[in-house]
């Protein structure tokens, strides 16, 4: 339940200038309740990988499957948190969170209970009747995360979710996510180009090459986190100071830098 | 901000200057003769007449109400037919492809060009006016409803799909609200077009209404009454536009972009 | 909701279906007599009449002659609107005092549909050429003014600051900084102007003209010559479309040259 599998995935996009191969021979398995981050240079296809699991794109060849089922369409079992939040501006926080539950035909009593839970989980109780435009970026993203969590999805897909937030809010959200992952763990596929973010949040980090994207290497962060006891620190800056953290981060940077190669910045 | 104190003061001063020039140029110096443009006194006299004894068959209020009724009728029917069509064309590519050629042919024909045909078909009564008003308000409604749907942010559509939203719920709770800002732009254009068409239609052939008043006044060489008619049209146009803006404010309270 | 666009073939197919349905319905209504032939001629009758009018005069001239006469008035009115509106808009965008003075007058007059000026136009110019030109001007003027105004007013402030730092005087500022920066807005405004002007022309000619396509249509309506009325409508639509296409091309090429998004 809740595993993701990329099996010999290739993706080609047809553009006015000709066919562009974005992904080449992607093979990756994400286990149940595992938090995997994908990092890579711009245009390497990491977002496309997420969109294929979400069901917004289909692979040109190969199979993407969740819990053994091939993906054909989007659905609440694979909840997505978008970079641009994608909240519905005419709906209140509660109504935004409620939509997915109504679509799943959850009974109204259960809905109310689940929404309460999600609101308290994401510290949104005092904003339940607010409209998105009345909330800061960080709060809007919390609503988006609540909207996803409330569906109890098999898989949580996060596409550079903190990319639109300012630096301080971003840090707060990263700490929030770590807290969530410990309290309410589930399978997560997390796309980012911020290396520290990936190392801080993930169990494993997959590094992609530049286009056409392939998985260059996959680093095991979890064992380092556990053996070095990162979780004993509450604050992100304390963890990021640790030599073991810095080492991993530098390793990933070096790997990515090779991908920049002759392209320059 | 536009309405600063200084700006308001200069604005008021300008309007007063215009009013004074009007008086001076017509009454005092007689540079603009009565046959060309009315003096303030002539304007006032005409206003009194049409309110009291009436002109062109009835009092101002009667003509005005008649015109407003036609505008609102044509406008409402146009948006009730146009918006659904536009939404449908936005939803379905097939519908878009099917309707487009017809639209392509009909759209360039100015609404006013339908007036002779409408009069031919329906005579000088209300029906012909409503037909042309309907047509003039219909086109912007369709176009803007269509554009509203097509301009919906992709992530929002994807979020709705991800949440497993079934088609009918998608239309009523996602597609229509998301298109509302553009739909309201279309409504503003439709209302403007409705007024223009109404006045034109009543100028060409009518038996009652503000355009008819304008027409009669022109034939009688009665500039004071022409001005009364124009001012009435302007005020009613402003009032209906204001009304629409209030509806828009209530409906689009969540739309930060518009308020900014 | 359909996400992907149709293929070219599908688009053409459905388009043809739509056109066929339209013409078919029209033909059916006409031929079957549900709508009297007098009021709804068959589609091909209208086309026939249109072709006829290209050489046969009606109401004093052939269709091309009427169109030429209409177009002359139209062009004069739009040109006048542009020549007055664009410079005035630029000046208003630059000189705050001018803006404060003119705006209230403009805002007050804006709600009066251009067509409402027809009675005064008739009074002042009779059925002469001045009447329609005045109405066309009334319709075409606002977009010229507003777009030039916005174009000048919303120029990137840094550009203005840089120019002032370089000691640029008023005239040069307007001509060499504001005008070029406002061109995209002005051109967009000209397109809208041209469209509104054409519509106003039609309205004006229905009432105050002694020549031109609108006049031709009114004459035909009076003698229940429906094919002629419809031929006139088609002619007006075609010319209007042509004008818009040309201006659209002009706008697109201007945008390309400036590296602006389409």
Features:
heterotrimer, B: 260 residues, mainly alpha, MetI-like fold, 2 domains, 11 helices, 0% strand, C: 262 residues, 78% helix, globular
CATH superfamily of the largest domain in chain B: MetI-like
User: Which percent band covers the strand fraction of chain B?
Assistant: under 5%
Summing up helix and strand content along with how strands pair, one would put the structural category of chain C as mainly alpha
- Alpha-beta classification of chain B: mainly alpha
Unreliable stretches of chain C: none
**Overall CATH architecture of the largest domain in chain B:** Orthogonal Bundle
**For the record, what CATH class of the largest domain in chain B applies?**
Mainly Alpha
Biggest sheet of chain C: strands, sense, closure?
Answer: none
Report on this structure.
The complex is a heterotrimer of chains A (about 260), B (about 260) and C (about 260). Chain A has about 260 residues and is α/β, with parallel strands linked by helices. Chain A has two domains: about 180 residues, 3-Layer(aba) Sandwich (Rossmann fold); about 60 residues, no CATH class. Chain A is built from nine helices and ten strands. Chain A has a six-stranded mixed β-sheet, sandwiched between helices. Chain B is mostly helical. In chain B, about 80% of the residues lie in helices and about 0% in strands. In chain B, helix 9 runs antiparallel to helix 10. Chain B starts with a helix and ends with a helix. Chain C is about 80% helix and about 0% strand. Chain C has ten helices and no strands. In chain C, helix 2 packs across helix 10, helix 3 runs parallel beside helix 6 and helix 8 packs antiparallel against helix 10. Chains B and C meet through helix 1, helix 4, helix 5, helix 8 and helix 9 of B and helix 1, helix 4, helix 5, helix 8 and helix 9 of C.
